[in-house]
Amino acid sequence: MNGDPILAAGKSRVGRPRRGTESARTDILIAAATGVFLRDGYGGTSIDKVAAEAGVSTRTIYERFKNKGDLLGAVINRLVDRDMDTVLATEELDRLHPRQALTRIGEVITGRACNPDSAALFRICATEAHRFPELAAKVRGSAKARVDDAIASYLRRQTLRGILNLSDPDRAAALFLQMVCAELHECLLFGSAEDIAKIDSDAHLKHVVDIFLNGAVPRRENSGSTTPPSPTTPPSPTALSTP
């Protein structure tokens, strides 16, 4: 199974950064760091190893990153950046029915989690975080927070428009993310590739979205209906009532 093409670039020696933009030089360093993290884990990685992989001096790395924790944060953020630039940050979500929008968000999250290189990085973070508190702080404070915030922002907008009825969109976003990821993360940590392959992602996401929306949509007065109004049609006053 092929992994992420950008992460895969870090698995071979990338060579000394040539003259070019600062962004291109940083890309080379992040690719090299990715290769070392995947090969040696967080505890076994050092700035010296990354410098050797990239064919640069350690000074070159320290000019851009404070330590290896910052490097790993950059690797993980690079994964999140592409998701943020596609589905999670687009206003197209606001034009979709909440069921479609939440399903699309879930597909992005599960697709990224199932990527072999992303899965390997997740295992590294999960298994080594207790020994390296800075690692846990970096993961929770950057990548996870950005995804949580993007989902919360979507839920907050739908709540303001009366499409959803949520008293705490931030907490709801965290719960939705856990509902999507919990089983998958358990398989990534304790299962095998076969266990992951057995997960029916489509059925799982449908079930998650069903449960989430049944608790999040406004209930129409005297009907008990939990069908969310169309995002393109302003809801009636009765649709905003709280159960």
Characterization of the model:
It is a single chain. With 243 residues, this protein is mostly helical. It has helices at 5-9, 22-40, 47-54, 58-62, 68-88, 98-114, 116-128, 133-160, 169-190, 193-198, 201-216. The chain is built from eleven helices and no strands.
Keywords:
66% helix, mainly alpha, single chain, 243 residues
Chain-wise SSE layout:
Layout: H1 5-9, H2 22-40, H3 47-54, H4 58-62, H5 68-88, H6 98-114, H7 116-128, H8 133-160, H9 169-190, H10 193-198, H11 201-216
Helix pairs in contact: 2-3, 2-5, 5-6, 5-8, 6-9, 6-11, 8-9
Produce a short descriptive summary.
The chain is mostly helical and 243 residues long. The chain is 66% helix and 0% strand. The protein contains eleven helices and no strands.
Structural class: mainly alpha
Span between termini? 48 Å
Q: What's the pLDDT, averaged over the residues?
A: 77
Number of strands: 0
The DSSP helix count reads 11
Could you estimate the helical fraction of the residues in percent? Answer: 55-70%
How is the main sheet built? none
3D shape: elongated
Based on CA atoms alone, the radius of gyration comes out at: 21 Å
